[in-house]
Amino acid sequence: MDLKQLQYFVVCAQTGSFSDAAKVLYSTQPSVSKVVKALEDALGMQLFERLPRGIRLTVQGQKVYQYASRITNEIDALENMASHGMTKWIRVSLNPSSWFANQFVDFYNETYEKNYHFQLTTAGVRSVMDRVRDYVDDIGFVYILSQQKENFLHEISRNKLQFVPMYETDVVFYPGKETELYDSGKSKVELKDLDGVRFIQNYQDEFFDIGSVHEESFQWKDIDISVLTNSDYIMEKMLKNSRVSNVSGSYLSENKTGTTPGIPLDMGDSNVLFGYIIHKGEKVDESVQELIDFLMVQLNES
Q1: What is the pLDDT of residues 17-41, one digit of tens each?
Q2: Which CATH number belongs to the domain containing residue 60 in this structure?
Q3: What are its GO cellular component terms (predicted)?
Q4: Which of 67, 82, 97 is the last residue of a domain?
């Protein structure tokens, strides 16, 4: 077993295809397949199921991927050190948030003289959790509905991670400018008011549908999500010029304030929780803690 085999294996797992992995690796499909087969032989286990279209990790392959991705990421970090000296990199994944984007700009300017370097990735809750678990990122920022907190924390604990809540806010409904609810004068909307409404959301995340506490609880599968995007620009344009609406936390939605008025969504005692994911029992790097402290100050002032 060698590093090349691990690198090829990780790329194959991420692309779900030997041919797509070959393009990323600037190799050929037969060569990639041969390297992965050599790794399977060395480990004495099948890592992928070969499907009619693409490949899929086996249960054993999923376990190997966690270790292999950690090794290859650490190699990447070492190579960055070699090429850039002891540059401090802060790797962050997060749910799309215009509020976070604005805070990050301020944090970058405030710490400019420290010469921090950043890698930022937007993704859904599940992907953020996986990236932190696999040491792809140092920290992940997510928002979840409080009604799903218990089930979410079970997933977090199972992956040897820790979730630290930072802020709790109301759930807000943002009607598109071309919808009937825009300028309706309503002080709040109820779940029944969402019937027939089409939505644009940043991510349709599975955690919103895991083990609802009550059958009548809000679930994404009960509403018509017609557009999924990780672009605030597309979100703003669609809300301003179409008949789609959006549901999110009020503090996460600064890009919508000039586009559409937010209306509180009555969901009983359920709110949106914002917080971060880190490895349980592991010390947070000082630069990452500096980012956390900065965000806490901003949240307390909001």
Answers
A1: 999 999 999 999 999 999 999 999 9
A2: 1.10.10.10
A3: cytosol
A4: 82
